[in-house]
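Hi support team,

I submitted a single chain yesterday and got back a structure, but I'm not sure I'm reading the token output correctly. Could someone confirm the output below corresponds to the sequence I sent? I've pasted both exactly as they appear in my results page.

Thanks,
R.
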Amino acid sequence: MREGTLLTKRLLGQALPLLAAGVMALVWASPLRAQTSAAPASTGVNAEQEQAPTITVLEARGVINLLPVVKEIRAKGTAVGSEARPVPRMNNTDYYFFYVYDVKAAQAHDPSQGIGNYAVNKHTADVRVWEVSSEVFFGNDGALVTSDELEQFQEELRKKYGIDPTLVQKYRPAHLAARIIPRELANSAVPLPITEQSANTAQLSCWKGRDSFSSRQARSAVISSAAGDRAYAEVKAIALRPEYEETYSGELCENSVKLFLAKGRVSRFQLILGSNSPTNDCLKIQGRNSCDVNGIQLVDWSKDGRLLLANLVIWRYETDGRIRRLPVIYDIGENKITQPDLYHFFDQYYKTDAYEEKEDPGSTHCDYELLTEGFSPEGNLILSATRPPPYPDGDEPVFCFDEKQTFLFELAANKITRRASNYKVQHYGTWSLALNSR
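Hi R., thanks for writing in. Yes, this is the structure output for that exact sequence:
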């Protein structure tokens, strides 16, 4: 047989069936996070690489055709397809990357269509199976796939292009990733400088619109009690730029929350609550810890000036979860912060008093949002329960009442009673913009 005859027959005889026009384009799973934009890989091709002999993409597809798994699936009468395309931040200079799939399942949009991801070395015709994951960026190049028929075909390709054992040994160790990242630096990120000041300590974020991403800081006005004690809140939203987007899995924005107090008009402000403190990092919501305190909103002082009230604002970045506000109370006499689990007590309330008014008192679920609005003259909490916004899927929540309700929460007894619909919350603190003594 003349040189190249067997090679030609295999390329033509084993050619993958073409999908009909209009069949969907396949989407590769990406190892990058959703917020990370995929930039083309920097291949850094040098003159030596440009001159090095390489097989064609059609010949690389012939290698894919001879994979044992492909031959086994086809033997069962199942059509197998493959798609070759560059993969962002992978070594597209030395490899052709293929996604191999079940054709019929792909046409039916079946998520189980995938058979595997394979990389064919352009210089050696070696083929590796690899997972679409961050592991490749640490130097995991996947396992070489071998079989007698596959090795025979690879030798024919090497002979055709004059690829001798020296060149095979030179190019076989080429990494799949465009660059290898030290594992200890995989999640490293650089904080961006603060570029904007705000008064919005409740919902400060690194994002302002789709294209504005930077670090921001917010500081509230100062609220003074009848006794002359003063407090203010501060929040920082620090934007993080990953050093290696390929492997970064941390947060892109990190908030820190602080509450400062000055006892008396001439004293300096001292930190009394910080979200980075081990004791202040989490709140109890319905008996479970929630550690995503990203904002704070000062509310008021009690009438006697002994208690300071603030709402801590909880949400998680990059999720569709709701924003919740939970009160924290600082007792200036005892120098102590307490946090009543209001949602727990309201759950109990709604399953008794509220449900007696409904057609199905045996129901076990309804939705509401709580907001602590201030103090009663006696130093208890005044709260409101309102209808929450629609769920992300568009479903309307089942509100526990027909309209907004106002409640008194007795701190000592953990007792809830409903107030009249026209109840007006009184406020006792005095607001000012100046910090005076810091």
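A quick pointer for reading it: The chain has two domains: 5-180, 189-432. Let us know if anything else looks off.

Best,
Support desk
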